[in-house]
Amino acid sequence: MSNALGIIFSNIHDKYNPELTKERTVASIPFACRYRLIDFALSNMVNAGIVNVGIIANKHYQSLINHVGSGKDWDLARKNGGLVIIPPFSDRSYDSLYHNRLEALKSAQVYISDATEEYVILSDCDAASNIPLADVLAKHIEENADVTCVYRRQTVGDAPETVFTLNNKGKITDIGVYTNMPGQRNVSINITVMKRSLLLTFISDAIAHGYSSMSRDILAPNLDSYKIMAYKFDGYYAQINSLESYYREDMRLLDKDVRDTLFGNDERPVYTRIKDSFSTKYGDDAKVVNSMIADGCIIEGTVENCILHRCVKVGKGAVVKNSIIMRDTVISDNANLNCVVSDRNVVVKDGRNLSGCEDLPFYIAKGKMI
Amino acid sequence: MIKKKKCVAMLLAGGQGSRLYSLTTSVAKPAVRFGSKYRIIDFTLSNCINSGIDTVGVLTQYQPLELNDYIGNGEPWDLDRTNGGVHILPPYQDTKGAAWYKGTANAIYQNIAFMKRYNPEYILVLSGDHIYKMDYSKMIDAHIKNGADCTIAVLNVPIEEASRFGIMNTDKNNRIVEFEEKPAKPKSTKASMGVYVFSADKLFSYLEADEADPNSSNDFGKNIIPNMLNDNCVMYAYEFSGYWKDVGTISSLWEANMDLLGDNPSLDLNSPDNRVYYRHFPKNPHYIGNDAKIKNSLIAEGCEINGTVENSVLFDSITVEKGAVIRNSVIMSGATVRSDANINYSIIAENADVKSGAKIGDENGKGGITVVANDITVGENQTVAGGEMIDKNLQ
Asked: Is B73 within 8 Å of chain A by CB?
């Protein structure tokens, strides 16, 4: 069992995914056939032995609450600790919704101060990744760090990122908060480890001074007074910040090496909400190649280079290529789909032809009939 | 304080299933895998909860480790309850000594105290080795309406097969007038499904009398049912129409798996009503590779398929390499089928490893179903003839 409390921010990135977060939080975006993004953040915590996890919610969190339930599917239905959803107005001194992580933490201050764990691990849930948090925590303790931030080497493009400059011992010497610094950079993935007591100090400091950004207002000015270390993660990291990145990252899972870095470690399985679906059934005329397919599908047609979520039906003569088809979607007989992202419960009628292209997939909203 | 329950179910799950041979060397028959996802006992446990019965005693005896582990606290079947829920009931020791369960009736007798805690009106006695979906509440309603002491679920079987079953001869109102165990010349086609509803007090008194009889073999079919009939108890047959199969032999286990395939399968587990629940293990979705050809088959999570799979039922976490061909077979969890291996009319059990070029079973099913037991390796280019059973590594 780990001596750390887990905190997950569920809504921080909603604005970056206008299509996919219209009726859900980023946390509950379906990914890799049968998962939601929060499954990866939760599983990372559970696999590090964390048994006390708070999810800070903000807006339209009904689907999130439905998904996580009591937490039992992640082994987080516990007598001591377990999974707790922290609603946005849990402290009476706040009368508006939070806008950033620090404000979110202020509203969770009571929850954090009531916990007994020595450490706290903060995480976003806008990415699918299998990160060894136990190792991050062990390194934090071993290095005697005050704060440890997880980063990855990546190319920064047009979108601003929080970027670390490191010395040769892995200590952070400069933080560029949401800066445009194109090129290969050490980009923060917003996983932060520190002592719980230090986090509480930061929160009260932020309240006293009206701070709003942890990186900009607290960490960056204190790089000399605290030992702020960086931990490099270099496995598969699918950050979902647009429909295009969603499509691109999901499709990468068709590559075995990529898939194995997410799912290949039996010691760190990815948990999700349990449904009692039947196995996927392939009909006499099914032709399926290079596809990842969840349970409960019935496939009678042709499926190539696709990600099929649970309980998708592909009718006879239908041809689905290069597409992501979410739960309970019905592709009727002889329909033809290429480069489509179909949200849940879509019905594509007989013989329809739909096509996007790889850079700009055609998106069908939840519940539509075509 | 324990709340009263209308009905308590007692599920007999201690059987060895000796005719499944190497598939039940280390597990009890109810824990044998079935249908790509399930274990046999999932069907009766799911039937209970889907029938509104939330108090179930599971009587275990033979090789209980895996079965106990699988049932756990009953959470997958919604049977982790504050009042009631699932209870594993193994044989135990008391002041008179320790005794194994001597027969089906004795197993229930030894647990009268468990049933009485819930002060039930009815006891449902079930067998954990059958595959079927049934709403027991309708049967209990019929039992109440008939004012019966005992109601036995029956299935109409073809007359030529009737001599394999316990046959109920009834009057036109379905009241049982005679019971014949495996009759040479059956007079009726109403075969017992091993599903009994008893009025609790009647059952307790017959179990106690049966226990006091030193000549009894303590069996429901041989003793309790005939004794009740002799005493003119009110006994009715309850006709069930639907899929039911005793998967007690290798060939019937294989057949029942095949019954899940096709456009209109005789056993449809995909319908949303009366779902069959099972214990999950976290596995990623399956992946179908560039060289895969899959027809008329079921495939569960965690598989990586790159070969040909036809008319087959695949469980989870199976690897099928390029060039491998699987036809008319059942492949259980964790098995590996390497390149150019060829499997026909076979059951390949958990974690078996079929090496490159191995040939298992007959292409036309001649000789019967071939079995490779769990954790067994079949070496490169080895041949296993139709109907053989392999429980030692073959190099």
From this structure: no
For chain A, residues classed under CATH 2.160.10.10 are 281-364
pLDDT at A176: 87
pLDDT of residue A13: 66
Chain B interface disruption, residue of A281, A291, A293, A309, most B CBs within 10 A = A281
Q: Which fold is adopted by the domain A4-263? A: Spore Coat Polysaccharide Biosynthesis Protein SpsA; Chain A (3.90.550)
Which of A80-94, A241-255, B127-141 is predicted least confidently?
A80-94
Does the beta-carbon distance from B299 to A280 stay under 8 Å? yes
Cα separation of A337 and B76, whole Å?
37
User: Which residues are paired to B86 by β-bridges?
Assistant: B56
Which regions of chain A carry the CATH code 3.90.550.10?
4-263
Cβ partners under 8 Å of residue A255, min gap 6:
none
pLDDT of residue A180: 75
In Å, how far is A260's CA from the nearest CA of chain B? 10
Contact assessment for residue B174 and residue B156, using Cβ atoms and an 8 Å cutoff = no
A72, A284, A290: residue with CB nearest B296 = A284
- Which three-class secondary structure string do you get for A334-356? CCEEECEEECCCCEECCCCEEEC
**Can you name the CATH fold of A281-364?**
UDP N-Acetylglucosamine Acyltransferase; domain 1 (2.160.10)
Is A72 in Cβ contact with B269 (below 8 Å)?
no
Contact present, B341 and B319 (Cβ < 8 Å): no
Q: How far is B241 from chain A (nearest CA, A)?
A: 23
Contacts of B310 in chain A (CB under 8 A): none
Structure confidence by residue, pLDDT tens digits, A305-333: 999 999 999 999 999 999 999 999 999 99
Across the strands, what pairs with B122?
B7, B199
- pLDDT on residue A224: 92
Q: Are B174 and B236 in contact (CB under 8 A)?
A: yes
- Interstrand relation of B150-156 and B190-199 (parallel, antiparallel or unpaired): antiparallel
The tens digit of pLDDT for each residue in A116-170 reads 999 999 999 889 999 999 999 999 999 999 999 999 998 887 777 889 999 999 9
What residues 101-160 of chain B have any CB closer than 8 A to a CB of chain A? none
Q: What is the DSSP string of A96-137?
A: S---SHHHHHHHTHHHHHH---SEEEEEE-SEEE---HHHHH
Q: At what angle do helices A37-47 and A133-142 cross, to 10 degrees?
A: 50
Stretch A333-358: mean pLDDT: 94
Q: Where are the alpha helices (DSSP H) in chain B?
A: 41-50, 65-71, 104-109, 112-116, 136-145, 200-212, 225-230, 250-258
Closest-approach residue (CA) in chain B for A270:
B282
Answer whether B283 sits within 8 Å of A269, measured CB to CB: yes
pLDDT bucket at A98, cuts 50 / 70 / 90: low
Residue A90, Cβ neighbours under 10 Å: how many?
17
Please give the Cα distance from B105 to B68 (Å, whole number). Answer: 21
Backbone angles phi, psi at B9, to 5 degrees: -95, 140
Q: Position of tokens 């948090």? A: A133
Tell me the residues of chain B between 265 and 304 that have a Cβ less than 8 Å away from chain A. 269-270, 275-278, 280-301, 304
Planar angle of CA A319, A340, A161, nearest 5 degrees: 150
Percent of chain A at pLDDT above 70? Answer: 95
Place of tokens 């190497």: B22
pTM above 0.80, yes or no: yes
CB count within 10 Å of CB A182 equals: 9
Q: CA–CA distance from A282 to each of A135, A297, B176, B377 (Å)?
A: 42, 8, 45, 28
Chain A residues whose C-beta is within 8 A of a chain B C-beta are 32-34, 72, 254, 256, 259, 262-263, 269-272, 274, 276, 278-296, 298, 303
The mean predicted confidence, pLDDT, of chain B is: 95
